[in-house]
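Contributing new complexes? Match this layout with S-adenosylmethionine.
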Amino acid sequence: MSAGAAMREDRSAACRDAPGALILTEPVRVAQLWRDGVAQLRAAGIEHAQREVTWLLEEALGVSRLAIHADGIESVGGHAAEQARRLFARRAQHEPVQYLLGTQEFCGLTFEVTPAVLIPRPETELLVEEALRVCGSQPSARVVDVCTGSGCIAVAIARARHDAMLWATDLSQQAVYVARRNVSRNRVEARVTVFQGDLLAPLASAGLAGSVDVLVSNPPYIAAWEWPTMPPDVAEFEPRLALDGGPDGLRAHRQIADLAPRWLRPGGWLILEIGQKQSVPLAEYIQASGAYGDVQVRQDFRGIDRVVSAQRKG
Ligand SMILES: C[S@@+](CC[C@H](N)C(=O)[O-])C[C@H]1O[C@@H](n2cnc3c(N)ncnc32)[C@H](O)[C@@H]1O
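Output block (do not edit by hand):
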């Protein structure tokens, strides 16, 4: 049965319901539901209220906007309307729309997201681009993604390089479960292994010492001074473990830069995502370690320093 037919059946079922149940399942006009949702989200200060209400409506009704028009669906059952209203209310409390929908696009692929993982950001695609650039034409590249979260970076690299082998780590067991599901969902389970553990520690069991071509990471990098400026969608809903980078936001970056030379092959690359005001202190720290050659900084599409790369001396 099509979703449209299901909705029409829901509506006719509502009409057959016992009088007591009729109140709950009384048909509701889709256009009115949409207008109410937009007004509610606008009042809550949500910027893209129309677009988001459309997505939430599609999610709640289990049918696309196109199908609503094509099937001429004007009303839906009360249960479906209630489900839509519940989603609007949660979004009005600033719960990220991606957690409500359960997915986010990244590098043209679809990833499951839950409140256990950071929602992949478009600027992180630059990290993937940089990893692919330094891999060049090298066959069977060995790539490690530390702090993998949803697994978006590891999976995107695996999908772009069909001969690459990848290992990913995260401290959060719940995030590891999500990452493993994303690995399967994107059909790269033969080449991506996800470990639970602290930074690079899980690599010991993979026997990778001195052989990694690229070590990529988007570690937590919100500095203490930034917390008061964080939007509620982020500060109140995304995992603190994924965000909190210590006093200057670079705690994990320094640890990774210290640990990476043991795992990278000579000439291998360390590639780290950074936040505001972090490129200079991190580049200086990496340079001062003496383990790496040139340190490079790349800017994202908004002109903000976003990626620091360094090649292991060999
Ligand atoms: C900024 S999120 C990045 C997630 C994902 N790579 C992305 O780019 O969307 C940082 C991730 O690091 C993980 N994390 C925090 N501390 C860690 C540690 N000591 N060892 C491993 N993972 C850690 C968090 O659980 C979170 O998933």
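Reviewers usually confirm one structural detail per submission. For this one: DSSP finds 14 helices and eleven strands in the chain.
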